[in-house]
Amino acid sequence: FFVVEDHILHTTQGLVNRAYIDELWEMALSKTIAALRTHSSYCSDPSLVLDLKNLIVLFADTLQGYGFPVNQLFDMLLEIQEQYSETLLKKWAGVFRTILDSDNYSPIPVSDEEVYRKIVGQFPFQDAELEKQPFPKKFPFSEFVPKVYSQIKEFIYACLKFSEDLHLSSTEVDDMIRKSTNLLLTRTLSNCLQNVIKRKNVGLTELVQIIINTTHLEKSCKFLEEFITNITNVLPETVHTTKLYGTTTFKDARHAAEEEIYTNLNQKIDQFLQLADYDWMAPEPGSRASDYLVDLIGFLRSTFAVFTHLPGQADVHSTMSGKVAQTACMSACKHLSTSLLQLLLEAEVRQLTLGALHQFNLDVEECEQFARSGPVPGFQGDTLQLAFIDLRQV
């Protein structure tokens, strides 16, 4: 319509004038923008929002070529960009949930060089020791690590698509991508990880694997920075460059997994302790520690063997990972000691025989033997045994 009006203006005399067309354009533009704002707000499919943006750009560029002012259209596109980012975040929340729900939370086995190179191509991982090992071998992380990393890159590409043809500077595009990616990491992915960690049926081995996975994803954040830099050609040293906050997301998830490990261990100990059935009036002690306690110590031994899967001693996160195992072990021993003490001192136990006390002593000795055996490396001297010292004194 406006192309025809412009043609009439330039090829005829007196039918239309510039003031009439400008007034008509201003009215049409305001109504068009209002309609687009209303209808785009209902759109939840990012591909449809992208199609809408492409049509608006085509419309704006065409009309601008005929001299019509279109700045308001491009301003509106920046508003739609925020909405596009939100639809992307919702879409990727589903993508991440699917990846995390389908993961087996065990290290990726590789049988040959081709599979090894494929995974290294998906995720920036270098380990000289693993390189030297013969096939078959395993990556330390599970499949969700390369999958999540690849999907973060796909999200960045999707953000970039919207910025095309908007006549934005490289710095503006870089800033837009980084802000959206930060939301993906700190809000969307963070929530998905926290939900997995807090699930009722999550086991200790899965939590240990999550600690390993988030350690490797945290280290990959610098490669995501480089990836964005290569796309936008804006150096990270530039004054106004937004930094990625991915490391915070993965640290928070790791800390949540650690806390869940401590909580789960204590809950398991409580379940075993519910089986305790002391006869406080027994005339003679048994010949060995109580069955429930032997089973409990066996469970703790096998559990702490799992912690040997935590990241190796060579990297920056290893000290922290070692501390997770040590803290979990100390926490479990203290909880066990306190719980046994409560059993002995509870109000219902008004008197007890020497035989019952000897039986209880056998159980305490079993705990002390467990502490002496060094279930987790890194404790100095008898540090772990001190967890049972109050119980021993009583």
Automatic annotation (TrEMBL):
Record has Transmembrane helix as a keyword: no
GO CC annotation terms, alphabetical: exocyst; plasma membrane
GO aspect biological process, one term: intracellular protein transport
Keywords: Exocytosis, Transport
Pfam family, one: Sec15_C
Exocyst complex subunit EXOC6/Sec15 C-terminal domain location: 72-394
Family: Belongs to the SEC15 family.
Record PANTHER family: EXOCYST COMPLEX COMPONENT 6B (PTHR12702:SF3), SEC15 (PTHR12702)
Designated name of the protein: EXC6B protein
